Amino acid sequence: MNTIDPKVFLPASISKETAEFNQGIHEIISAVPPTYTQPPQQIRDDREAGKGLWPVTKLDVVQDRSAPGPDGDIPLRVYFPETVKGIYLHIHGGGFMLGRAHQSDVGMAKLAEECQVATCSVDYRLAPEDPYPAGPDDCENAALWLVENAKKEFGTDVVIIGGESAGANLSVVTMLRMRDRHGYTGFAAANLVYGVYDLSMTPSTRNWGETPNYVLTTRLMEWFNDNYLFAEKQTDPDVSPLYADLANLPPALFTIGTQDPLLDDSLFMHARWLAAGNASEIAIYPGGIHAFNAFPTKIAHEANSRMEVFIRNSLS
């Protein structure tokens, strides 16, 4: 069943723990300058120094690998669990401007062990230094290398793709490019977590405003988008896959919280995924803010557990 329970959108459905956690995040973020007022490299440096909301732990057990690309080698972070039944091609988030593959080491190692998948995270180039199409080009070439070398390098050709926020966007763009440019429709599944699929902005993003400030705001989305590409390309299907032909794509799980400005992106994309003849599930978490599953709360545990079940089931 693909029916959405309308109760998930009611304020009464937000647990006390979630409401208190959101207020705490609001207070932390409100006490510092908005992200869009700072130089991108300074934000990156601060995150690496552990000054952001998300601590960075680079694991020695994760390997540095690379895939060839027309503009140079594309760095990858690869983790092998003891048993490998599939490969999870991961594309990190960060508004096309922030984030690095190694910042997902802890989450990818846990996912690998829980699901018995080797994880392969793409360290794609970032805007504004390398705007569109640099990031999607890197993800496409990493996927192409992975698909062509999966059996030799990983012992399996079962490939699942997924990512968060901008990484979910790039995951869909990568699937579309692999289908249209390389004739590959073999991804076993797509794990798409609070993604942005329309850079011209869906109503929930456009109408969100600045407060309450739960990680992501309308102005911050505008900043990300303006640094990534020219405004006239914002509805290009290679940028905003909500506008693409979505036929012949794998089963997908869309994960989103009700307090995320990108709520409509997942609601709309889930519907379009189904309308294109693909299997799709959507998991909506009352009170979930952007990136909610990265924190130690009950709804984060529920969301991560459901994603793990989805990935394990996709291996068969």
Provide an overview of this structure.
- Strands 1-2-4-3-5-6-7-8 form an 8-stranded mixed beta sheet, with helices on both faces.
- The relative contact order is 0.15.
- Strand 7, helix 8 and strand 8 form a beta-alpha-beta unit.
- The chain is α/β, with parallel strands linked by helices.
- It has one domain: 3-Layer(aba) Sandwich (Rossmann fold), CATH 3.40.50.
- Helix 4 packs across helix 5.
Lateral strand order in the biggest sheet: 1-2-4-3-5-6-7-8
CATH class: Alpha Beta
Number of distinct beta strands: 8
Q: What structural class should be given to the helix and strand makeup?
A: alpha/beta
Overall tally of domains: 1
The arrangement of helices and strands along the chain is HHEEEHEHEHEHHEHEH
CATH architecture: 3-Layer(aba) Sandwich
What is the overall shape?
globular
Largest sheet: 8 strands, mixed
- Rg, please? 18 Å
- Continuous helix count: 9
Our measurement of the CA-to-CA distance between the termini, rounded to an integer number of angstroms, reads 21 Å
Instruction: Classify the helix fraction into a percent range.
Output: 25-40%
Q: Could you list the spans in which at least 5 consecutive residues all have pLDDT below 50?
A: none
> Strand fraction band?
15-25%
CATH topology: Rossmann fold
CATH superfamily: Alpha/Beta hydrolase fold, catalytic domain
Strands, helices and their partners?
Layout: H1 16-30, H2 40-48, E1 63-67, E2 74-79, E3 86-91, H3 105-115, E4 117-122, H4 134-154, E5 159-164, H5 166-182, E6 189-193, H6 203-206, H7 218-228, E7 252-259, H8 263-275, E8 280-289, H9 298-314
Parallel strand pairs: 3-4, 3-5, 5-6, 6-7, 7-8
Antiparallel strand pairs: 1-2, 2-4
Helix pairs in contact: 4-5
